[in-house]
Amino acid sequence: MTGATRRDTALVVILGAALILGLPLVIDTHVLTLLVAYGMLALSLGLIWGFGGVLCFGQAAFFGLGAYTFAIAGINIGESTLPLILAVLVPAGFALVLGAMMFYGRLGDVYLAVITLVVSLILFRWLNTTAGPAYVIGNARLGGFNGIPGFPILNVPGRPDLMIWGEPLYYAAAVTLLVVFLLVSWLLRSSFGRIAIGIRENEERVALLGYDIRARKTVLFAIGAAIAGLAGALYATWAEVVTPTLFSLQQSAEIIIWCIVGGLGTRFGPILGAAVLAYLKFALGQQSVIDNMFILGLVLVLFVLFLPRGIAPELARLGAWATGSRRRPARRRPPPAGVADG
Fold first, then answer.
1. Domain segments of the chain as ranges
2. DSSP string, 188-243
3. CA–CA distance, 30 with 21 (Å, rounded to integer)
4. pLDDT exceeding 70 applies to what percent of the chain?
5. What residues form DSSP beta bridges with 156?
6. Strand partners, 242
7. Residues of the chain falling short of pLDDT 70
8. Which of 44, 67, 197, 199 supports an S-S bond with 232, CB 3.0-4.6 Å?
9. How far is CA 127 from CA 45, 68, 86, 103, 142, in A?
10. pLDDT at 1
11. Around Cβ 239, how many Cβ atoms within 10 Å?
């Protein structure tokens, strides 16, 4: 790790700790826990789409799989340690198989987006039909459109009697998001991450250098799904119920909007976009005059027209302008004596 990398990591940790400790002073921790889960979900798509160039319209499928896996495993096991691990592994394994079929099938970007969206909608439609007593996994009933309530929430590893809820859940989720952010940053600085960015910029050139593009896209796709599954487990603990709406078209569309508004191709942008828009949706939920999706659609149109880079890049640009750290153009050297006269 170079000196610059150490400084960047230390700066991220300090700023992250300040936000984790300072935000509860202005926003309730119950709401903040939801924003943290959504921020992690947006980060998962930001990694796949913003740095890998793979537009996944079905990121909600991995989010919902993580939540359902956590709930089902928790009911059958009775505590949360192994269910939390399974909530990461099951979506990652599913994405690994799905990604291999898509990328090795040489599907175009449009077909990739459509297939991921269709997979999410199939899961949404199927889970809505699982209301009968025949749809049981172990001791857990799927419950159809009512979902699965009453499963064990997050607990201290090895101590099922010590539940993590309320303010401790917020701090646990926020620290987890900070760790995931640092891991994503490390991944993008590694050779794997640099090659992934190269694939996003020019696939043919990277292929000519001898790299297996399909394998690397599949692995990146699975990593993004694992992060989304972890976000789903945190959401399940926060809500204490999982329903098929986690796989809905609205959920899939919101994740896309979060990344665009926050700033695609940045690490912090999707998290910021998810936090801002999810809090806006929460505030608008207190009234019934204006539809939430109408507001989100209007915000997306305005950002695409007037702020296409998103919030995070513009904030970085303004910060550089305010501190005077923008690179000044080099002064033109005067010609040597005699040249100007000539």
1. 8-247
2. HHSHHHHHHHHHHH-HHHHHHTT--HHHHHHHHHHHHHHHHHHHHHHHHHHHSEE-
3. 14
4. 92
5. 159
6. 148
7. 1-3, 286-289, 325-342
8. 67
9. 23, 10, 19, 27, 7
10. 59
11. 18
